Every structure is written in C-alpha cells, then in structure tokens.
Amino acid sequence: MGELFSTFGIDARLLLIQMVNFGITLLVLWYFLFRPLIKVIDERKGKIAKGVKDAEEAAQAKARIEGERSGIVAKAEKESEAVLARATEAGKRERMEIVKAAQMRAEEALRNAEAQAAETKRQALKDSEKEIARIAVLAAEKILQKS
Fold first, then answer.
1. Do the beta carbons of residue 37 and residue 30 sit within 8 Å?
2. How many independent structural domains does the chain possess?
3. Three-class SS string for the chain?
4. Sign of the CA dihedral 119, 122, 124, 126?
5. pLDDT tens figures, 11-60
6. Whole-prediction pTM value?
7. Structural domain for 34, as ranges
8. How far, in Å, CA of 16 to CA of 14, rounded?
C-alpha cells in the first residue's frame, strides 16, 4: 500500500493530517453552523405550524361568528316583521276607532241638525199660526168695521 501511495505521489502522513483536519472542520461546522441552522429551521417550522393553526382557528371562529351573526340578523328580521305586523294591526284598529268615532259624531251632528230643523220648523209654524190668527183677526175687524 505504501508503494501505491508513493507511485501516485501521496504522502500518507499528509493524508492522515488532512483527514483529521477535515474531521475537525466537520465537527466545528456541525457545532457552530449546522446545529444553529437546524435550530432556526425548527423554530421557523414551529412558527409556521402555529401560524397555520392560528389561521385555522381564526377561520373556524369567523365561521362560528358568521353563523351567530346570521342567526341574530334572522332573529332581528323576524322581530322587526312582528313589530311591523303589530304596528300595522294597531294602526288599523286605531283607524277603525277614529272612523267609528267620526261616524258617531257625524250621526250626532245630523241628529242635532234634524232636531234643530224640526224645532225651527215647529217655531216657524207656531209663528205663522200666530201671524195667520192676527191677520184673521185684523181681517175680521176690517170686515166688521165695513159692515
């Protein structure tokens, strides 16, 4: 083997020293470069995994909140429809009461007007009877005076 090394011009001691030097360099690189690099990569993997997990939780929370919002909006719409229906019904009842009260006042005013007209007619008839009686008495006096 020594002949083979000397044929190719390889010094066995130098080869051994270079192998030890390579091993030391490999250990130093492993300790100072690869371990911190692997640590940083693992931390980034953890952060990425945490970010993905947080994003999934946020998406689930958003979906849950969206569902709750939809329920609240639907409930509010139903309540507003119920309020509107009650208000419409109350408005109809109030309108009917107002119309009924107005009809009653109109009927009362009509009865009062009819009663007043009847009273006026009765008074006019009474006055005309008095006037006719007075005219008849005057006519009778004139007839009696002429005779």
1. no
2. 1
3. CHHHHHHHCCCHHHHHHHHHHHHHHHHHHHHHHHHHHHHHHHHHHHHHHHHHHHHHHHHHHHHHHHHHHHHHHHHHHHHHHHHHHHHHHHHHHHHHHHHHHHHHHHHHHHHHHHHHHHHHHHHHHHHHHHHHHHHHHHHHHHHHHHC
4. negative
5. 878 889 999 999 999 999 999 999 999 999 999 999 999 999 999 999 99
6. 0.44
7. 2-146
8. 5
